[in-house]
Amino acid sequence: MCAHGPGIAVPTSSRTVRKDPQLAMKSDQYGLSRRGFVRGSVIGGAGLGAPALLPVLSTHAADGPAAADATASGGAPRAAFTDRAAALSPDRTVATACQFCNSNCRLHVDLKAGRILAVRGEDKDPVQQGQVCVKAELMPQLVYNAERLTRPLRRVSGAKGSPSSKFEAISWDEALRTIAGKLLALRDAGQAHTIANRTTGRLPRGTGSLVARLFAMLGSPNNTDVGPVCNDAGGNALAATFGLGTFTNGYGIDGATGRDDLGSARHYLLLGTNQAETHPVTFDYLLRSRKRTKATLTVVDPRLTPTGAVADRWVAPKPHTDFALLLAMLHHIVEEGLYDKTFVERWVVGFDELRTHLRKHRYTPTWAAKVTGLDAATIREMAKEYATAKPAAIFCNAGISHQLGAFDTYRVAAFLAAVTGNIGRPGGGCNFMHNTWPGDLHLPPLKAEVPERREALPVGPDYFAESILTGRPYRLRAVITQGNPLVSSANTTKVKKAFEQLDFYVYTGLFMEEAAYYADIILPVCSGLEMEGVYMRRDDRAVRWQEQVVDRVGESRPDWEIWIGLAHALAELDTRRPAAEWREAFPKRWMDYKELWDDFVAHTPGMGGMTRARMRKRAEPLRWPCPTPEHPGVSTLYLDHPSWYEAAESLDPAHRGKRFLTPSGKVELFTPELEKKLAVTGHSALPVFYTHPEVTGRNPTLAYSRTFVTNPVNPQAVTHPVRLGVPGDDAVHRAFPLMGMTGRPSVVHFAEVTHWTPTGKQLNGIRFIQIHPDTARRAGIRDGDDVRVESPRGSVTGTALLWRGIRPDTVFVPNTFGPAQKAGDLFDDPRYEAANTLLDDRYYDNLSGQQAFKCFACRVVKT
Question: What are the protein's UniProt keywords (predicted)?
């Protein structure tokens, strides 16, 4: 054990972890093993059965026994009792894609008489290798689910938000005409800017482009996406540094070079990403590659996860202090001359300014040790290992995105890759998960004139609520969502109050989630198996075609059809714009996704080779950019190779001959132009350390201005400038001494929707609050006790899970639970309030809009 600050002892390697008796016991109990987060090629059906499912037969009965399932659990072969059973022999198999995480697994769904028998992985994909995780069996449970919304609904009575709200079924025509009428009335009153939409990661690809077109024609600037509650900051930082806001490297073989990309890394540095549970199948590919290359793995996380359990080194800094850790690693690399001098000299702009900046602020490992609670020697070792293991790959996810300084933290991580020459190199890169299609999907040019639009609302935190409650900078009147803001947004109590007061709200979704009870109109959507289209592994830009597996449930529709239908309802009712303009802008042929996708391919830069026919034939996904049918798709962005230069030019003719797609054509750490651009918001091209005011230790933090300026990262919107370096107070910790953080409950769940499946609630329907045993003992809490986590904003309940693999000053509260989730009633699971009730929405990244889910002052009491 290594000392990590006063009274705190945190293991720094998985070998040390496994010597701890309690952690060894917990590892067995909670499945911290490779087979704990991935399964073999075949899993069982979609009913209410236990997760230990029957082995099922192979796709073709004539092929013999279903050997693929024989060792699915990693143990001895099992008998295939259902092999060649006439009633269970599939008569059809459909290829689709799992939509519950960014592994983007291909699924082969076996059917009999139109009913799903089994879901299997893709054996011919060398990354997937036939594997799936537990979530694959949840896909059919979204189809066969008694709680599905099946018809459009209209509010009849009851206060908004009340569980006793009454709704009546109406036709699609009536629902869409009601919405269209409301939107047009606001537009005609000069209030188009008070109409807003917020998309979600569950949307079929390209729906956002349809929403953007419709909002442009209405004249509203407030078409927003899920980025501020997901992972926008990483993409923003990558774009500012390298030119494109996307994950830089790919899983598997690069078709252009024939070389393994991320599998060839010699060192993996994972910060704030529990890939074993959030990206299980692609993480398993990294583990297989690691056996071959002997690559080392360092995991940075305040708590031990299944990812940290398989690492060579697990370090546990205070929540919200990764920024300091990365600055110190960068300082050590620069001062010790561990950087790639040849690469820096040829391809990096601003290195001398960076070196001066690091020295001026004295961002040394010794300084960072005081901030993070880590050992300075450990920080130096991490820096040296990353800089000298060629190539080395950085992975980040929500653990970094959900921080107050997300954009600046990601920028420093990008600097690490740049100065060590780990960018534009197979096995290296900045693999920051981003949530949207890279570069957007383009429709044919809009011929109709569009009105001028005023500025959009700030991008964060959930400014919808602030706008509705205060009228600053103006009050929203009508909102449409494809997600569930009553669970996903910070300061849930405030968001509830706002949606109670919202004039008109349209909820689209699969179930009567918490947000649906605030709606005026409810629209039922399809699940992933009920539609065809594409699904993307947003991590490495890898896209799959998915076929429709089963008929749509009830009258549910896919989202793109909803928006096209709304456009045609607007055409019928609009007295200002000719109906022909709406109909030409949204041709009915786009109701067929194949037609819509063909137009995306024809009009989106870098996509000329991503045709439906080509993707349908592939066992592996195809990576963007892919400009021609002959192009293999790009695995390693910025690779000094003809395939990359061809792809770069296809994105913009101005990129011809450029390796990096910045104005200089090089990696930009510092330029006067970037400095000026960021200065209006209080930031600098070379980041200065600050952190959340509720991190213990009186750290430098920030203060927000009440004024608005144009956001340089999201120039369609405004933001509040900040003043950095404001001394922290730490007074909040007199009453709330611990630091809380939220995150995914386990590998079982993905956002809220999996909580509506029987298996999801059977396996993980209890909210386990992770507390260090020493902390629990001082509070009189035992393992399994009912507890309440309290913050200055509110409280939520859960069950204590005493876990030595978490910092004693930190508490982990699983998110995505909500009080409307009925599926858990079958197992007598509690109905929990949203974890985000605990969070302070005043603090957010004013560049990306990211909400600060990863730190809040709290205390835990036994109930």
Answer: 4Fe-4S, Iron, Iron-sulfur, Metal-binding, Oxidoreductase, Signal
